[in-house]
């Protein structure tokens, strides 16, 4: 069980405590054994800075905040909170956890914190470093899927406490999709995949109508919000007669610094072009780039060109536009 220890008067002679602190502060900060993780939160939230110490023995766990390259502000020693800030406390499970808890986080709390082990001789060993970021900006991720596929929208909360996780779709109208693992929509394609700290929203058989913005948030007055943009790949069909020029359309409104990749799919994937640079020896193919358009042009098409093509962004989770090219020897063949 975790116990919280708030600011309190430290027992023992003040002179011995001050002496310990004087010796402690007069020594340089030792190197860390390992580096911890970054924690991002919004103003008004509770930030839990983790620290796990094994084989502590008679030594003390100390939390400090880096004020400058040469100075650290001591926040706690063992169970005792040394600062007068009432929002800070130490969370200890009686075993290995010595977490620093900051209630009602403010932007001024942002910075680098270190959890260290201190001995009576003022020798210190670095245990963990935690970088706390406080910002009104939302966490945001992006998921891309093709129509008919299953889209998994990620959501992870490390310290949820007794709060619920709420999934909703935003836009002109907010639609609650799930609270915890209980789905609040009649859409049978949707469910919540809960494993440990993960609360992923799963949408089976996605359609272009699922495209848009989703939010995973905690159930509190000032919630922590994780925004997920779902992009469902467009699918279009281009029909051409043998000998004609086929133009396969592709438009990206927000490309950023990513590249556009054209490839032909099937039993074997063939890269055709990256940007405007063609990667095939087929002289009939080139990319027609105008503004946000990255169309693939195939001159003098044959039935051998018939098949599926993909225009995608060069990223781990790409946005994909699928184009089916149908080539027929006669105009009647196109109508079949």
What labels describe this entry?
6-stranded mixed β-sheet, 336 residues, single chain, Immunoglobulin-like, mainly beta, 2 helices, 3 domains
Task: Describe the protein.
This protein has two helices and 28 strands. The strands form six sheets. Strands 2-10-9-4-5-6 form a six-stranded mixed sheet, with no helix packed on it. Strands 11-19-18-13-14-15 form a six-stranded mixed sheet, with no helix packed on it. Strand 7 and strand 8 (98-102) form a beta hairpin. It is elongated and about 90 Å long. It folds into three domains: 3-134, Immunoglobulin-like; 139-232, Immunoglobulins (Immunoglobulin-like, Sandwich); 234-335, Immunoglobulin-like, CATH 2.60.40.10. The N and C termini lie far apart (70 Å). It has 336 residues and is mainly beta. The chain has helices at residues 14-26, 331-335; strands at residues 3-6, 38-41, 47-49, 60-68, 71-77, 80-81, 88-92, 98-102, 111-118, 124-134, 139-146, 151-153, 165-169, 175-179, 182-183, 190-195, 198-203, 212-218, 225-233, 235-241, 246-248, 260-264, 270-274, 277-278, 285-290, 293-298, 307-313, 320-328.
Summarize, please.
This protein has 336 residues and is mainly β. It is built from two helices and 28 strands. The chain has helices spanning 14-26, 331-335; strands spanning 3-6, 38-41, 47-49, 60-68, 71-77, 80-81, 88-92, 98-102, 111-118, 124-134, 139-146, 151-153, 165-169, 175-179, 182-183, 190-195, 198-203, 212-218, 225-233, 235-241, 246-248, 260-264, 270-274, 277-278, 285-290, 293-298, 307-313, 320-328.
């Amino acid at each position: 069980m975790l116990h919280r220890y708030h600011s309190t008067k430290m027992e023992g002679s003040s002179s011995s405590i001050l002496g310990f602190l004087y010796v402690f502060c007069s020594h340089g900060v030792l190197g860390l054994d390992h580096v911890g993780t970054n924690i991002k939160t919004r103003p008004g939230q509770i930030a839990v800075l983790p620290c796990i110490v094994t084989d502590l023995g008679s030594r003390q766990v100390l939390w400090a905040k880096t004020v400058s390259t040469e100075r650290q502000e001591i926040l706690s020693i063992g169970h005792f909170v040394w600062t007068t800030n009432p929002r800070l406390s130490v969370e200890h499970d009686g075993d290995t956890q010595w977490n620093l808890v900051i209630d009602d986080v403010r932007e001024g709390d942002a910075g680098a914190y270190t959890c260290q082990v201190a001995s009576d001789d003022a020798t210190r060993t670095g245990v963990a470093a935690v970088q706390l970021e406080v910002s009104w900006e939302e966490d945001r991720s992006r998921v891309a899927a093709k129509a008919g596929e299953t889209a998994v929208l990620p959501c992870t909360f490390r310290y949820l406490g007794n709060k619920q996780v709420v999934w909703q779709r935003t836009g002109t109208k907010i639609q609650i999709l799930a609270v915890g693992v209980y789905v609040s929509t009649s859409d049978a394609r949707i469910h919540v995949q809960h494993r440990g700290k993960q609360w992923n929203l799963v949408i089976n058989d996605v359609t272009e109508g699922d495209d848009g913005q989703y939010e995973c948030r905690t159930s509190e007055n000032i919630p922590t919000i994780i925004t997920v943009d779902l992009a469902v790949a467009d699918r279009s069909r281009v029909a051409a007669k043998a000998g004609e020029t086929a133009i396969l359309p592709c438009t990206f409104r927000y490309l950023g610094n990513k590249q556009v990749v054209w490839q032909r799919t099937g039993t074997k994937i063939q890269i055709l072009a990256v940007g405007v640079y063609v990667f095939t020896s087929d002289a009939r193919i080139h990319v027609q780039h105008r503004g946000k358009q990255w169309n693939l042009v195939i001159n003098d098409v044959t039935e051998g060109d018939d098949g599926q093509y993909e225009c995608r962004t060069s990223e781990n989770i790409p946005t994909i536009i699928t184009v089916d090219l149908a080539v027929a020897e006669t105009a009647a063949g196109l109508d079949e």
